[in-house]
Amino acid sequence: MKDLGRLKYFLGIEVLRSKKGIFISQKKYTLDFLAEAGILDCKPAETPMAVNHGLQIVKGAELADRGKYQRLVGKLIYLSHTRPDIAYAIGVVSQFMHQPQADHMEAALRIMRYLKGTFDYGVLFRKPGHLEIQAYTDADWAGNPVDRKSTAGYFASVGGNLVSWRSKKQKVVALSSA
After folding, report:
1. What is the pLDDT of residues 53-88, one digit of tens each?
2. How far is residue 89's CA from residue 172's CA, in Å, rounded to a whole number?
3. Nearest 5 degrees, angle CA 49-CA 106-CA 32?
4. Distance of alpha carbon 131 from alpha carbon 105, whole angstroms
5. pLDDT of the residue at 121
6. How many CB atoms lie within 10 A of CB 83?
7. What is the pTM of this model?
8. What are the distances in angstroms from CA 105 to CA 102, 128, 159?
9. Count H helices, E strands: the chain?
10. In the prediction, which pLDDT does 127 show?
11. For residues 90 and 111, is the Cβ–Cβ distance under 8 A?
12. Do 64 and 100 touch, CB atoms closer than 8 A?
């Protein structure tokens, strides 16, 4: 074994230390991903997904290249380790992995365009003066227009530092939002 010093870069995740705390991001991974996709020169999107997107599988719609779509969404899922701001959008586009259509590919590419303008975002872990645990959750009641299932999300912080987040479509149809 060999001591390589303080961690700086590991599996595509950059670790920066400062007096404020520890900042983790995937800046290089994101830029390489955008270059590989050939959209490094694209116009950035202001949000990762359109409001009230209404994405669903439409019979007879144009299909997207499934292999390309799955690789794209897989890399986006890996990016969500340091990007809680794209968790919901990735959760939506990952629902169509088995039969991606042109609209789904457009939504995934919009996330990429959002990343173009926010490639240097990440998560900052500050040195807290306390270890208070806070958690927040929300759900859109019957938000999926096809199966009427809700999408729930949460995030948790310790000492004001984000430590866990998730967005997921619920397995059953909710009869209320309470």
Report:
1. 888 888 999 999 999 999 999 999 999 999 999 988
2. 20
3. 85
4. 42
5. 95
6. 25
7. 0.83
8. 5, 41, 38
9. 4, 7
10. 86
11. yes
12. yes
Write the CB contacts of 176 (distance below 8 Å, at least 6 apart in sequence).
141
pLDDT in tens, 13-61: 999 999 999 999 999 999 999 999 898 898 999 999 988 788 888 899 9
For residues 101 and 32, the answer to whether their CB atoms sit within 8 Å is no
Residues in the chain: 178
pLDDT over 70 at 4, yes or no:
yes
Phi, psi of 30 (to 5 degrees): -65, -50
Token pair recorded at residue 109: 């590419």
C-beta neighbour count of 78 within 10 angstroms: 17
Residues above pLDDT 70, as percent of the chain: 97
Name the residue ranges covered by the structural domains of the chain: 9-127, 130-178
Query: 93 and 108 in contact (C-beta within 8 Å)?
Result: yes
CB neighbour list of residue 80: distance below 8 Å, 6 or more residues apart? 86, 87, 90
**Based on the number of CB atoms within 10 Å of its own CB, is 162 exposed (0-12), middle (13-18) or buried (19 or more)?**
middle
Q: What tokens does 52 get?
A: 């009230």
